[in-house]
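Before relying on records like the one below, remember that each one covers exactly one chain. Contacts with other chains, cofactors or solvent are not represented anywhere in the record.
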Amino acid sequence: MILDESGRYRIEYEDTLRAIGHYLDVNLYHNVTIVELPEGLLAKGIAVRAAHRGTRLYSRSYLFKNDEIESILEDAYTRRGRAETGQPAARHAPISNQDMLRVVGRVIDEEKWHDIVINQVPGGARVKALVRPQTTETEDDQVIDVFIEESQIRRWIEELRVGRQPGRD
């Protein structure tokens, strides 16, 4: 569960993951995995870097520490206030990390999952997380493992862009 600097208030995954997704897009990350740790959110992936002869792929990771997340969110709100256009992406264009993580974050918030791991995989995203059971029979959190198809992610992105609540099929 992502908490603010004071450690008392929960920060929404949707906005946090969207801001992290922007960082990953700017830094040309692909095949991203995000792991929630006690210290913050660890993003790992393959990044592209210009080399002497073309481009080079390399493994890269970045830990978004809990005490940095509020600042990252403030920067994102300021940036979106200036530049958010709401222009739809081409139908078969790659989904940006920012958009993909935004809709996955919304699902995580709605389902009240925590201690998450997100893997960007061909055809969509795999999310593993813990969820508190609805019954009182057990005190233990349950592990969930969900695959969200790329077509569903695209549909939810488009619904958000036009100001509708994404429908959950």
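The two ends are 25 Å apart (CA to CA).
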